[in-house]
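Just wondering, does anyone understand these tokens?
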Amino acid sequence: MFCSSSHLLLHRCFSTYTVPHSTSIAVRSSSSLQEIPKSTPESKEQGGPTSLLYSSTSFPSIKAAKRVVLVRHGQSTWNEEGRIQGSSNFSVLTQKGEAQAETSRQMVADDAFDVCFSSPLVRSKRTAEIIWDTRKEEIITEYDLREIDLYSFQGLLKHEGKAKFGAAFRQWQLDAANFNIDGHYPVRELWARARSCWTKILTHESKSVLVVAHNAVNQALVATAIGLGTEYFRILLQSNCGVSVLDFTPQADGGPPYICLNRLNQQLATPSSPLAGGSSGGRKTNKRIILVCHGSQANTEVSFPNLGDQPMNMLGVIQAQKTAELLLDLTVNCIITSSKVASVETANAISRVQEAADCLGADCVPRYVEMKQMQDLDVVKVLGQSKQEATEVPQQPGWINGFEDGVVMTALWDQSGKAWESLLEELSDESEEEKIVVVVSHPAVHIALIGRCLNLSKEWMGSFHLDAGSISVLDFPDGPGRRGVVRCINYTAHLGRWSIPITRSTSDDEEF
């Protein structure tokens, strides 16, 4: 049932843990009033977002860990028609959209939520009702969770918008952060609304929250949570009924919480899953990097998760095989791996399945997949330089913060820069119009590579989380020389029963 009351009984919560860093992390965001410089190859070399400003408004403190699960609504009638929806309320879920919502319901069926916040728009409310199912807790409608306000654009087919508005429509496509219509800057207004939503969500007395909303507003929620400005609009993909997860952890001194993006755009492995081919952010992409974290290793009792040059255990072998099967329908051109045992084992599993993919008949010839080793993907020695034990377990958000040694983090970041340049060079091969490069290594180096893709700095590494056996997809619709689009992060749906659940165990009611 939908209601406007914000008072809910707390019945379960997350167990908490102490994040090693004692320093405050500022909330980073771009101004809603200042013009946003467009990203250029030159700005990428300078390091850090081009329009990054430090906001004086930080997130409210929390007393206990909070997990927020974001879901975009299922396909709507206007999605199907290619019509610009914005915050209009005339479209409803299609049959496919209802089925997508049911799939999302199954993904979180066993998870405990204290409350659901939903956009007031029909397509989102219906998705929330399907996912919420028989839960008795209330669904709270929140007006600020409506989709981006697009004013005169709303209701137009895309070709109509192009014909009627010309230059304005082109700016909406190419420079959305500075797009102006009817005297409004829609993306900047959206970012301000997202920050307002976070204040309401974080001050609500709940520890496990489901939020059902829309494409653009979910992008804004993810971006503002980890301190990214409006120039990141259309960079963090949100598919219909895609699930994203953010973890908020309290600080000991009562300051703003530590925030970690646990997953981005999670869906069950289907033809329309984030790994499927096609467009990214509305643009066709022919160049892609798939980051594969090697499977779990034999000795899980070491001081840091999966640290050391050890083979995979049985769980890791299963994870590697599941990953290979997930990539079966993609034509992988090259596999680049760390030289460490677990990474090589995972890469070999992917290679075997890829080479056999087109060879199911008796007379066929296996397809050759090039496999290379890259020294700059080997980070075990770098991480082993830490003068203290990193005590975080791999399921904990922000576990990379367990290495508070600045020298180690700097070395990891610098080495990832060398690896990133080599990967972009590999992807830039003009002899191949379409190219998919699979990169297999330790989760720590992949976190750094995601930061490199987003043109961030080393301070952001603790804002991302990756599990063993997970996949992250980076697309380059404008070519490898321009900023990539993050299609998904920490994708584990393909692992089935061997994956980490969407929500953590909430059995311990422990205050921070």
